[in-house]
Structure prediction request, 184 residues.
Amino acid sequence: MPRHVDITIPKSPPPPFPLTIDYVNIVCGFGRGSSDLGIPTANISLDQLPPEVQNLNTGIYFGWCRLKPTNGYKSSVQRKDGTSVEFNNGCYLIDTDLEVLPMVLSLGLNPFYKNQNKILELHIIHKFDSTFYGAQIKFSFLGYIRPELDYTTKEDLIKDINLDIHIAKKILDTEPYKSLKINL
Ligand code: ADP
Ligand code: MG
Prediction:
């Protein structure tokens, strides 16, 4: 069953939000977001992030983000499972992909997959025509949606992520959350 809890998001971002993180690199994860769930997430390695973020509670957050292509040659990286990932550094991103975009972010141990390490992943609420591994992303945490939950089925996890996306879109369309977009 997806969750029943109904959350109340404060009228304006409570401290420590807005918490803005300057451009960090998008790395490659296990590739399960797209292939398994149909919800790709840009993974960020936590050691690039300040202690304020490392100390946040695990769970789902929302906010705004902005991508930036980086210079450099394209390269390929092999995942442990043998699949290959192209690092194109965001060279295929078009103008509309480079605007400030809404996102939901997961910080945690991903109990569903029994991960060992804390990981931070952002799902950008936007349709991209290509991947952008190796690009950089700047983002702003504006609030907390829910804790990490353990799911018994993949379908329930997907339903909940879609609910998170719905909640994030709705809040980001209201003031003052909407105007905080211009700070990125
Ligand atoms: P990984 O485990 O390597 O992060 P995913 O299946 O989660 O693999 O896919 C993530 C990649 O998909 C991102 O790094 C990015 O290049 C691409 N991508 C495409 N669309 C999106 C999106 N809407 N939000 C986040 N990443 C996306
Ligand atoms: Mg991912």
Observations:
- Residues 26, 28-35, 40-43, 123-124, 126, 128, 131-133 surround adenosine-5'-diphosphate (ligand 1) (CB under 6 Å).
- Residues 63 and 141 are 5 Å apart (CA to CA).
- Strands lie at 19-27, 42-44, 59-68, 75-78, 84-87, 101-108, 119-124, 136-146.
